[in-house]
Amino acid sequence: MSFVLVAHGTRLPRGVSLIGDLADRVAQTLDRPVHVAFVDVLGPTPAELLSATTDRTAVLVPAFLARGYHVRRDIPAHVADSGHPDVTVTAALGPDPALIRVLVDRLLETGWCPDDSVILGAAGTSDPDAMRDLHTTATGLSAALGSRVELAFAATGEPRVAEAVTAVRARDHRRVVVASYLLSEGLFQDRLRASGADLVTDPLGTHPGITRLISNRFQRAGAEVSGMRGR
User: Fold this and answer.
1) CATH for 2-93+207-230, among 2.60.40.1510, 3.40.50.1400, 3.40.1280.10, 3.40.630.30?
2) CA pair distance 192, 199, nearest whole angstrom
3) Mind listing the pLDDT tens digit for each residue in 173-225?
4) How far apart are CA 202 and CA 231, in angstroms?
5) How many Å separate Cα 200 from the centre of its chain?
6) Record's superkingdom (predicted)?
């Protein structure tokens, strides 16, 4: 059985390295290889990896924090193009309570205080399902922190993070902290850091909670596949 972690892709070497490091950590946890594929910018693509594998079954975990075009359209299209006869694709990583715990940890690491105003900084999307997922995460983080968390975007959607930082600071006259809801370093994380916020958390990818979440997705899906084959 092949395990494949599917990410978006970036031209920035540090972003590619982070996804590779994350896959290595998951592989160590599971004690088996975890391959990496990308749906955009660089390869190998999921179709290329799947068509090259000799394993009879494969499990793909989308390394995306919400549903969206890449999860609902691109990945299934790659699976179909690969010709592989037996591929299981899990749900996207978010929304999930584990991600809320990681966000809270990142805020604490960065120096967040309960009096601070918090903005959840996401890449953004035009997909209605993905947007609902992002609002679900913002609501969950609000509940965890005991205060309202604004949602803003680095790329697609309004408000943009820099605009939200300015508006929140003018309204609340408190420190503004941007909680990065991004998996890896890259252009969007750079935009969060340039937003004018007092504090910006690191991406989620290297947190142990992300490794556990992805590992659990592989384990559950793999066990289900093995159970079905054993019937």
Assistant:
1) 3.40.50.1400
2) 10
3) 899 999 999 998 888 999 999 999 999 999 998 899 999 999 999 999 999 88
4) 45
5) 17
6) Bacteria
44 contacts 37 by C-beta, under 8 angstroms: yes
Confirm if 103 and 141 have CB atoms less than 8 A apart: yes
CA distance 83 to 213: 28
Beta-carbon-side half-sphere exposure of residue 109 (alpha carbons within 13 Å) = 14
Q: What is the pTM of this model?
A: 0.92
Architecture of domain 97-200: 3-Layer(aba) Sandwich (3.40)
Q: What is the distance, to the nearest Å, from the Cα of residue 54 to the centroid of all Cα atoms in its chain?
A: 28
Q: Report whether 155 contacts 123 (CB < 8 A).
A: yes
Instruction: Count CB neighbours of 216 within 10 A.
Output: 17
| Max CA pair span of the chain | 62
d(C-alpha 125, C-alpha 63), whole Å: 15
3-state secondary structure of 195: coil
Q: Where in the chain is the domain with CATH 3.40.50.1400?
A: 2-93+207-230, 97-200
Helix (H) or strand (E) holding 155: strand 149-156
Q: Any idea what the Cα angle at residue 167 is, between residues 128 and 141, rounded to 5°?
A: 50
Distance linking the first and last C-alpha atoms of the chain: 17
